[in-house]
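Issue: copy button drops trailing tokens. Both records pasted manually instead:
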Amino acid sequence: MKVLFAAAEAYPLAKVGGLGDVAGSLPKALRDLGHDVRIALPRYGGIRDVRDDLGPLAVRIGGEGLEAQLKASQVDGVPVYLVDYPPLFDRPKVYEYEDDGKRFGFFCKAILELLPVADFWPDVIHLNDWHSALAAAYLKTTYAGGERYRGIRSVLTIHNLGHQGLFGRDLFDWLGLPPDTWHPEGVEFYGQLNFMKAGIVYADRVNTVSPTYAAEIQTEEYGCKLDGLLRSRAAKLSGILNGIDHDVWNPSRDPHLAGKYSKSTLERKATNKKSLQEESSLAARPKAPLFGFVGRATEQKGVDLLVAAIPEMLKLGAQVVFLGTGEKRYEDELVTLARRESGFVAYLKYDEALAHRIYAGSDFFLMPSKFEPCGLGQMISLRYGTIPVVRATGGLADTVRDIGANPKDGNGFTFRDYSVAAFLDAVRRAVEFYRGGRGWKSMRQRAMSTDFSWGASAKEYAALYSQALVA
């Protein structure tokens, strides 16, 4: 099967968040299954790895013909098409510009215009989040009469419904979509153009990054005002869990660790705890339960619960290490807390190597998320034998089984109510289980046995593409 995988970011060429990890890993896993998968990506200012110039790429938009260049690169053997148009993309950042609507609207049309230039005609175009979602609308309308385009199907993956790409009517006019698509059953959304809604309406199949999140976004609480539309499209909506790169996240070969270990040499994990305590200037207490957090300091990640709970956690004899950046109000609270509490350390920065050391050196990993479409932190922590304490939402509910409800195959601790009390109850249960000793080693070994590699997810995506082809 031929697949064009279109995204705004793809590691290592461009990465801001989890989408970059997915776009850097899933196409490779699909190629390992024998599919011809290629990536389409804007060429940002920071992308230097250009290996070929495929020629001019004409994109008619805004009532004129704009000429870009189509360049080529590669990620782990996966061909990458780079849409090179400096006026819109030659900038240091991927997102957060006032003209992001124009930038990614242009990219959506370029996705379809690059096919004849590259001489690559896919069976399926796989779109990811709002930045590429509008290509589904173009494919079903503007390009519907093209003989080579007519048989192409599209799949949209929603990584985070909270970001939808909302812009004014003037951008719709500039993009040149047919006037009849400006309709509540088309791309219009309360008087605005909604890229994500366009993808949901026009794509042949829509999926999210976990089965539970696929169900949650059909409710008012999580649906971000698109729940009604999603319920009406439930027949073409599904959820597939993301994976993690088992080569990158492997405690037996991780170069960032003080001591490498595996499921059969779990006792060596203690070396990493001792090292993390030393690095973080925490008291050298081998029996103290050490909790780690790696992520953004935002409400979505439950940092308001965490800040409120940390003093009580420390009273239980625990230690806590935080790594991440985010909203200033939370960063300020974390700094104040770290100055006041000797058992808490906050690293307000991005540090990939330190993240590896926290995953390996902690006993528990915290994810009290308000919502979590998939979540990678809990998968990584399980891989490292570090037990997750999570709120049962989205992908967290699909990957973490509470030991209390599942004594034989539990791999973590969960709570449902979004409250400090519920979060602390899960933490207390975790501390009690840790100190009780019985079942602790087997639980960690069970955690490390869980397979979250991309192989299984890639097979599910291949099946989803097949469904799209017969839609």
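Record 2 (pasted manually too):
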Amino acid sequence: MTNYYRMTIKKRSKRKTIVLVMICFMGILSLMPMLDRDDRREGASGPRAASEPGAAKDEFTEATEQAGNEILAGDSGVDALLFKEGVVQKGDTVMTLLGDFFSPAEIISLARECEEIFSLSRICAGHAFAITTQGDDFHGFEYEISAAEKLRILKAEEGFQVERAPIEYDVRTERVSGVITSNLYAAVDAAGESPELAVRLAEIFAWDIDFIRDIREGDTFTVLAEKRSRDGQPAGYGRILAAMFINQGQVYKGFLFETAEGQAHFYDENGRSMRKAFLKTPLDFARITSGFSRKRFHPVLGVNRPHLGTDYAAPTGTPIKSVGDGVITVLTRNNASGNYITIRHNNSYETSYLHMSRFASGLKRGSRVRQGQVIGYVGQTGWATGPHVCFRMKKNGQHINPVKLKTPPAEGVPQDRREAFTGLVSHLTTTLEQDTSQTAEAAQRQAVPAL
């Protein structure tokens, strides 16, 4: 493991310094009688001796005493705080990270104290951590749970103080825009941004735009996004405050708005929720290799038969998401479908995801899943000629074409929050709609004041 140490207080050689200060004082005291005799020889007009009560001290004595006091104040006997920072490596556990300071029994006790805040068994490789010591004693431990939050453990008089704390970033808001020439990833990259922004943008409009089938050359996007940095280094994106996507001439807008309950969701300019009952597709980006058909030539069996789903081709291991909230009713494998999952969403709808390479960990029959949750990964199990997912949907027990499904949106902005929402939309729209006719070459980032 690669670690480095950073001292916050420089250690001094305390005993040596104190001895030197005391020698200086003893030397000064030994000179006092001679200085006093010399002053008396000068007569009454000379300055009073420093040894007399109320007399002014000479400059050397004052400077020496002041320096001594500063050194002694700095050398209080308190050991320096030492920070050990690093990244959790594969195979590391809380026992390996803190084993130099605590016995196994003490670590078990610490784990119990942390359980309600964050289970120490969930410490993962690749996450940053920091250990603070004072001398040979443990002082504190921090572990970055996610990009937004960290676990903080501090030694207390009795036991430990355990809490979750936000990770602090420097944040600025920027306007980012681009033009589609081939796909969304390429357009975001051309705008100088990371793939994360493409994924976030696709998630906002996932209920209205199929980013596999619908986007065209010349489509445009604009985003008002928070960009974060730590210690002067880029650290990803914060919130997306507003976004606009023009797809085949149709304008879609989304505005982030927090309800009175503290829940933040995206709504269109009229206050309707962007979220609908089902996502358009179970993959963020892929291509359709075979659509819904009552009669299709089967590439493996070599005969015509119904294809009651939509095939999305993607590299093996691509995450597959549930298109809606629901309960897993089937999680199994067979010769034809390979690894597959069926989810019941309500009394009317159910969806199936076939040919997975593997299931997401922790899932089983009866598990509840939420919309957008990863349930498995693209594969080539069963009767398949290449890695893909066959996505199927039933309504009232009958197979339907999911591409043509239209579902109503979720609940919109509450009436008592409409005025605040309208003000926010008016404020953000002015910036969002600037220069919407920009070409791909001119669609560059423009900084805007923090909101």
